[in-house]
Amino acid sequence: MTGGYLFALVGGLVTLAFMVELLRRRRLREKYAALWIGVAVVVLLGAFFPQIPAWFADLVGVTTPVNLVFFLGLLVLLVVCVQLSGEVSGLEHENQTLAEESALLRNRIETLERHAGLGATEPPVADPGPGGGAAG
Amino acid sequence: MPTPAVQRVLVVLPAWNEEHSLPAVLGEIREHLPDVGVLVVNDGSADATSAVARRHGVPVLDLPFNLGVGGAMRAGFRYAIEQRYDVVVQVDADGQHDPRDVPRIVEQLQHSDIVIGARFAGTGEYDVRGPRRWAMQVLAGTLSRMAGTRLTDTTSGFRGAGPRAVRLFAVHYPAEYLGDTVESLVIALRSGLTVEQIGVSMRERTAGRPSQGPLRATVYLLRACLALLISLTRRRTVVGPAEAVVV
User: Fold this and answer.
1) pLDDT averaged over every residue in chain B
2) ipTM above 0.85, yes or no
3) Could you tell me how many CB contacts below 8 A there are between chain A and chain B?
4) Which DSSP state fits B202?
5) Is residue B3 a part of any domain in this protein?
6) What positions does the domain Glycosyltransferase 2-like occupy (chain B) (predicted)?
7) For B242, phi and psi rounded to 5 degrees?
8) Is B94 within a domain?
9) Which of B22, B45, B60, B65 to mutate to test the interface with A (most CBs of A within 10 A)?
């Protein structure tokens, strides 16, 4: 076993342990950790049995197995980025709905307070956001 | 269809940092439109927009942070449904729309689900050129063909929504950047709603600076074209325009 494969072996084990630990502490949701655990397992397999990446590279017609590994690595990262963009879009959508809902509820509370003869409330302080400005 | 006499009309003013122009606009609406409901949607303003509106005794929705016009308007449509308004007219809080045009828009809503107050349709003058003009022409051409009627000013923020459009928009108003103008029309047309325009005159803003310089306006319109292309490739909104929308 060459040093390179040993390096991959250690890397895969550390990733796997890290993911399991994050899951155990509930820092990471299962749906995000699953992919990384999968990646770590694949790396481990390749490190234990170097003939697997070699065989696979031969199968798909890539001369150097390492190039295949690079290619697959980039592909995985791309998929993860797109998936995260999708998750963020979903969160923004939910965030907007919550903001609208909170504004509508505040309005109803103020109306109720007025009918109940309570004093007028001061307008809420807006959150300037991290940039201080606003989007679009 | 209810007659105009019993139709409840709500004027929604999406306002982002408009404390200086808001008093004049609210005053004009009170003067010329005594029978309509007014709602100011304070879109996360950093100034006294909300306080100014409250001083005028107008209901205010305070969004906790800036959502953009699309988000502000969807909140407005939801409020309209909660408060049982039939018709919503969007008017800019910066004073460039004349509230005296609102009754004409409301009247036209008897025949169409959405009525756009268009800047190029005869009255008033409004001149643009260059890429901005081409982008506007592309938008207008495509949407006119979809609507089956001539639409010249598809990015106008002066527009009225009839009962069917209010119900649709309370659920499906696009909150994305640009979505509030072009994409909302695509959604409406694909859901079988009808769109028309009437000519209105635009005025100079009463206070504050315009939100867009020429360059930003051009980028805005090019992005609007992209948004149009994408929304055209989407599937039709599954929800029916009137009955199926859950309120």
Assistant:
1) 82
2) no
3) 79
4) B
5) no
6) 11-146
7) -120, -60
8) yes
9) B65
Backbone angles phi, psi at A130, to 5 degrees: -60, -35
Check residue A63 and give its pLDDT: 85
Q: Give B93-153 as a 3 state SS string.
A: CCCCECHHHHHHHHHHCCCCCEEEEECCCCCCCCCCCCHHHHHHHHHHHHHHHHHCCCCCC
Which amino acid type is present at position B107?
A: E
B35/B104 Cα distance (integer angstroms): 14
Residue B220 has pLDDT above 60, yes or no: yes
pLDDT digits over B133-171, tens only? Answer: 777 788 888 889 989 998 888 888 899 999 999 999 998
Q: Which domain holds residue A72?
A: 64-116
User: Is A130 touching B (CB cutoff 8 A)?
Assistant: no
pTM to 2 decimals? 0.79
Question: Is B149 inside a domain boundary?
Answer: yes
Contact call for residues B103 and B33 (beta carbons, < 8 A):
yes
The answer to whether B26 touches B100, Cβ cutoff 8 Å, is no
* Local structure of A134: helix, strand or coil: coil
What's the whole-number mean pLDDT along residues B120-142? Answer: 67
Tally of domains within chain A = 2
- Encode B14-58 in three state secondary structure: EECCCCCCHHHHHHHHHHHCCCCEEEEEEECCCCCHHHHHHHCCC
Contacts A129 to B, Cβ<8 Å: 44, 65-66
3-state secondary structure of B174: coil
Tell me the pairing of strands B37-43 and B114-118.
unpaired
Which residues in chain A come in under a pLDDT of 50? 132-136
Q: How far apart are CA A103 and CA B113, in angstroms?
A: 27
